[in-house]
Amino acid sequence: EEDAGSHGLVFVFSAKDGISCGNSLADQAFFDSLSSNTAQTNSAAKSSNQANNASDPWSSWNVGKSGNWDNGNTVDSWATKPESAAGQRNSASNNWETATAFGHPQAYQGPAAADDDDWDDDWDDPKSTSPSYLGYKETEASEAGGVQRGNSRAAAMKLPLNKFPGFAKPGMEQYLLAKQLAKPKEKIPIIIGDYGPMWVYPTSTFDCVVADPKKGSKMYGLKSYIEYQLTCTNTNRSVNHRYKHFDWLYERLLVKFGLAIPIPSLPDKQVTGRFEEEFIKMRMERLQAWMTRMCRHPVVSESEVFQQFLNFRDEKEWKTGKRKAEKDETVGVLIFSTMEPEAPDLDMVEIEQKCDAVGRFTKAMDDGVKELLTVGQEHWKRCTGPLPKEYQKIGKALQSLALVFSTSGYQGESDLNGAITEAGKTYEEIASLVADQPKKDLHFLMETNHEYKGFLGCFPDIIGAHKGAIERVKESDKLVATSKITPQDKQNMVKRVSTMAYALQAEMNHFHSNRIYDYNSVIRLYLEQQAQFYETEYKELVALPSSKRCQWGFRGIFCG
């Protein structure tokens, strides 16, 4: 295998083995610990209601639907930008402001095929499909967010024999009850800003440009793939990566940060037609959006694994960096051991309240995003199907009527017949405008919602981890009373749960900042494009020759 050298001894298991695994035993332990509702999902297939819950990432815990995030600063003007290094909020002079926030221009709009072939590479197995408003059908994997996407990769995955030492004792207790946490090399400070706990944003920010897709092959041309060029805006150096390399990066980030930071899934998998120009363009633009999201995150973008992905110099350095990342011990719950809040420990009541507030808001937003996606999908279908056909029917009917009138032989109606004919042609032109319009406005609104649906699908596991830690602390009094842990152990548990709470609040402040900026941008674009569309439609009507418009002796629709 191409990457056997970076994994050691490699076995390949098929679905018949009944073994579900990720890229390593440690990965699987991580995914298992993240998805607390895996067993429930397996049994849910026995009834339709439970099956519906299994496809919903929020079904693993019960949160009210109508919660509100308690933040009076969420209403802002169109000009609001995400927080950044300058005062942790001002972004006027850096790339946080100019990063693409809401879409992938001219992304492929056509339907996808549905059967698979495995000539791409050994890691590009099927996963979640594209949003159905683009002609695709949603699956459970895409509903469940990034973690369930990882769990679904059981068909034919390589199983390295190395495991992360950090998973030798899986579970939250590994972090909460450790006598002394190992001091990691990397530290993630959390400061207190105007809006509460915040990540520290880098002084110089960057984006990554994904471009220049090229087809490559191996095994004497039997196996083909597409390679993309990635160029960092801060170094102007380029590296090349295949889709499976992005997939590797996604799983590394998920394993490392997945309990603290939502890591959305990669752009959707195409099963056939992967070398068609339109699909390559669509995938590249969605990879661009995913990379921009990662570059905008102050913790992810500065992490060693992400930097190595963008800045390796040759094949040897790439494989060395891969091996190092796969042996990283600071993964899962241990990521919290790298975080250092510059604030006093929080009270347990306050910790639980803030955790519940995040749960209520993210659940409510998830419901809202899904509702808008459903409505938008229906509107997309209407605009690209029945509605243009109705305009075409009106246009053809008008032209047919004019043709009938022209057979009367009456000399004084030529202008009227000409006006009706022009009106019919105009309605046919409007049909084309209506069919093309969703690509100019609704597309970007749907893309933004689909991205946030991916983010929100990660929160049930994040909230679940925090709730699990809170429950452990609640149980600690009994453990102290039975001398199973010492009072100092309990104090350490409270301190570490407080660190987790600060991390959650810092991540939510980052999330809210980007949410406000993204939705300000995309809704403004949507409204501007809609206004331009109706203005164009009006101009199409009033552009009829004046002699034909006014033949009827009144200033009706054709004269505005």
UniProtKB/TrEMBL annotation:
Superkingdom field: Eukaryota
Molecular function, one GO term: phosphatidylinositol binding
Comp. bias intervals (Low complexity): 37-55
InterPro entries: AH/BAR_dom_sf, PX_dom, PX_dom_sf, Snx9_fam, SNX9_PX, Sorting_nexin_WASP-bd-dom
Region annotation (Disordered) ranges: 37-93, 106-149
Composition skew (Polar residues), residue ranges: 56-77
Pfam family, one: PX
Record bears the keyword Protein transport: yes
The name this protein goes by in its record: Sorting nexin
Organism of origin: Buteo japonicus
